Amino acid sequence: MRLLTALFIVMLAAHVSAAENPEQNPEKLVEKLGNNRFRLGDIVIDKNTDSVRFPAKVNMNEGLLELLLCAPYGKTHESLFVTEVDAVYLNLALIMIGCEKGKVRVKHQGEDVIPDGTLLTIEVAYKDEDGNKEEVIRAEDWVYNKKAGRPMLHTNWVYTGSFIADGEYMAKLTGTYIVTFHDSFTIIDLPLEEGADDTVFWVNKNAAKKKGYPVELIITRIKAEKPVKIMPVKETAREGKTKEPGESEGPSEEKKIIVDITLLSEDRVKVEEKVYTHRELEAYLKNLIANKGEENVKAQLISKKEIKYSTVVEVLKACQRAGCTNTSMVMVPEEQKPVNEK
Asked: Rounded to an integer, what distance in angstroms lies between the CA atom of residue 263 and that of residue 271?
């Protein structure tokens, strides 16, 4: 535990050094509440129940999901909840309740693997319209499994922790906190086969509160790690779809544009057959988004060889400056053609 606390302080100090007040003692950021409870920013950490609790808001009440939770600058067009909580603080709070990464990691968005690590449950706490009685439900109750034609079954989630590249914590950089569609940048992933399919999970609009409704998310570590029930996805993405009455389909496959960005060097990328600098790429994406809309443009970073993550970070920043928050990373062997490449 002393080693864990030391690691916590070191990581927090590194985060504070980049903040507006670099002289602030990181230890003072953790407030003792008594009875083995602590506060880190807006996060309450309860060591008695091995849980963390923090504020969020409902971000969608219909549509296709790839995330359960993101930052306000993240993929808000496909995230059920949004929070102002800092990704670094959330990760450190989870470490404080005993979360550890596993051996199986997701290398790119949508990879067909089952990530492992500390298992978690996620609950949603909210008050009634009068602000009096509090209700606590499982987060899955507000998610709809379109393939199964029913609300999402209660399941475990898995701590993956994201990672640091070139001094940037990738969950913070991308605003990716909790996903339903596998992502290497996320802090918490879904240890189910459905996590490799981005057409399965939608907002359960018959249950979810209206957009902007205040809630609190409660993430609890499972002490007795029960086996996760795997729900195989046998149909292809276009087979066996069911639709809720009056449900919006969201952007169609024909309307959605996937921009393949092949990383060539530290300062050059290729889109289709044209080579761009990072600034030129930013201008290209800005123009595309202005014409097609942010929700219809997805940037897919492709590398045919091992590259420095500093290059990935710079390209991601260029995409974000352009207003393109929907990004993913794919590593492609030299002999294999990237997705969508003719």
From this structure: 9
Give the predicted TM-score (pTM) of the model.
0.75
Q: Kindly state whether residue 315 falls inside one of the protein's structural domains.
A: yes
Convert 187-225 into a string of H (helix), E (strand) and C (coil): CEECCCHHHHCCCCEEECCCCCCCCCCEEEEEEEECCCC
Question: In this structure, are 122 and 262 located in the same domain?
Answer: no
The rounded average pLDDT for each run of 10 residues, N- to C-terminus, in the chain (342 residues) is: 47 46 57 93 96 97 95 93 96 94 89 92 92 91 94 95 89 95 95 92 94 97 58 34 42 65 85 88 87 80 71 83 76 47 39
Residue 340 within any structural domain of the chain: no
Split into its structural domains, the chain has a count of 2
Q: Which domain covers residue 272, as residue numbers?
A: 257-331
